[in-house]
Write the structure tokens for this entry.
Amino acid sequence: MVNLGLKIGSLYFKNPVLSASGTFGYGTEFDDFFDVGRLGGILLKGSTLEPREGNPYPRMAETPSGMLNSVGLQNKGIDYFEKNIYPRVASYDTNIIVNVNGNYIEEYVALAERINKLERISAIELNISCPNVKMGGMAFGTNPVSAREVIRAVRAVYQKTMIVKLSPNVTNIAEFARIAEEEGADSVSLVNTLLGMAIDIKSLKPSLATITGGLSGPAIKPVALRMVWQVAKAIKIPVIGMGGIMTADDAVEFIVAGASAVQIGTACFIDPLAPVKILEGIEKFLVERGFSDINELIGYVNRY
Amino acid sequence: MPKTVLDFQIIDNKQLTRDFFILELSAGIALPEILPGQFAQVRVDGSADTFLRRPFSVYDVNYEAGSIRLLLQVVGNGTKALSLLRKGESLNLILPLGKPFSKPGEEERSLLIGGGVGIAPLLYLGKYLRSIDSDFEYLLGFRSRDRIIEYQEFSQIAKVHITTEDGSEGEKGFVTQHSVLSGTNYSRIYCCGPDEMMKAIGEFAKKKKIHCEVSLENLMGCGFGVCLCCVVKTTSGNLCSCIDGPVFNINDLKW
């Protein structure tokens, strides 16, 4: 038997495979496909204090080995979440993590305070990296001063595990990871999507209504992997890696680069069973290569 | 019915015209119940340009044989790759997805209107209507006589009215101009085709106060309600055409 369990802050994860926010709904959409409780954790889709309609259609463009999206945090707000969604997800036998967003620091703080009171929510992922909203999101995560302000403000009101989701759309992502660590974050997750664009040459117009959007999928994997490696070397708190992971081999690469856990995102669209296949594949890899504990593999590349 | 991910085997790939073809697929096991108007998300392997699945209406279902048929038009890299599949090759599908067409009331008379590849969900719907003895006719629009597909299939189950844009068969013009629309008393319209056609039919139905359902073809990422990319503006806000549709009542859409 191999040990797949690990800790992020004070929170125990039974295995390192998590779903990525915005690609897994509220988990319930996957009930037909597999037992969501098998995963180490699920990250629910991006939430805000107030309801949001999101961006106009078209919001998606397929690009080579990936896709652009500009959903814009469509969700029904925290009141609806508490009343209608929380009771349904509370029974999943795994860590349930809410992805927290806002236009202003005050909104992040108010939302974190509300979620702090929800017993079954084990952690929040502070999203300072959404590229598809006019205010907030990436605007916080690409400016060291405002990144520090929002992380500090939320840390002051949120007592449980706090993960900060970083934007790859910066010159030096390690700088932002260090800021998160200095301000008391328990972990950082990276990368959110890379800002991109596509043009429909039939109409000679941008493919997305918002013109730009976030690129995800295997197209970004080498960039994401490089950033996870850089960040893992720069900080002591655990790193959660993501960006184009489609297979267990991809996930192993991220773990070896320094990620304690991985999030599976866009892969869920193509194969809704991808998270469990990746979980099984990681376990098989450990057995075949003679590792008895996932923790032996984390950051393996940095030992030499 | 629960959604399932299933590997199918191609048992036939029949080319109809230059760009239309029908794939017949066998699951090898009992099929889940598939309702008229529901769709499948088809995985297209083998190219970096066909990263996402493609949504297609289920054209026909044969529960006894455990097989389904998909009516497809080559429009891009994905459908091109599918058109080249041969007997024996496998294809991965997620199905059944989406909300089906609603059932008509007992005394209702329906008109099923399709344009081009938009006729795809209407064969199975027609077979269902016939199985419940519900009265209906077809109105199908094509560009020209040589672009008419599957006339035999449709005419076996109900009367088929045809329009062609050049008048080479049936009435000349678009489906919206066909005399059957002004002449007969239908209480219900089911429509699938290009957006402009569905909008025009929707306007007509609203004016005449006819119950009208359309099947949308929005771009989809996942097909089961998690990516939130295929949204359409409705009276209840942005809804996903994959789980809240693809079939919508025209009165709920804010086009």
